[in-house]
Amino acid sequence: MLHLPVEHDGATHLLPVASIVAVHANAHYTYVFDGTHKYFCPLAIGDVEARLDPARFARVHRSHIIAIDRVVRVKKTGDNGLVELAGEDAYTVPVSRGRLAWVRSHLGTRAHAAAS
Fold first, then answer.
1. What is the spatial distance between Cα 76 and Cα 101, in angstroms, rounded to a whole number?
2. Which of 5, 17, 51, 108 has its CA at a distance of 20 to 30 angstroms from the CA of residue 30?
3. Distance (Å, rounded) from C-alpha 113 to C-alpha 21?
């Protein structure tokens, strides 16, 4: 099983990739959300993306990666979109204009119905 290094309570832990809901870039580092907590990750978003399975994860914005199977809803907002992800806490991620059509087509009828 693959893991990402994350920092929590002053120590570095290995977070299983299977538990990742979303990744958010912040400058040269990232934050990883597992559905309950956000963890600091010392890797750049490109390095994180390279470790993730493209069949399970998608980069939906230059600063955001999501777990495709955790998408609950896709909503169009102006020219862009928002993705709502499943988790203990509600979590939304912006979808860039250039990636919105891809997100909608890869999520099938569920996304089309929610985005209408």
1. 10
2. 108
3. 22
Structure confidence at residue 99 as a pLDDT band (50, 70, 90): very high
Side-chain-facing half-sphere of 15: CA atoms under 13 Å:
29
* Residue type for position 77: T
Question: Any idea how long the chain is?
Answer: 116
Distances (CA, A) of 71 to 7, 11, 114: 25, 30, 11
Q: Would you state the pLDDT for residue 21?
A: 95
Cβ-Cβ contacts under 8 Å for 62 (sequence gap 6 or more): 25, 96
Do residues 80 and 57 share a domain? no
Range(s) of the domain holding residue 53: 3-67
pLDDT in tens, 38-95: 999 999 999 999 999 999 999 999 999 999 999 999 998 888 999 999 877 779 999 9
Containing 60, the helix (H) or strand (E) segment is: strand 57-61
Q: What DSSP designation does 37 have?
A: -
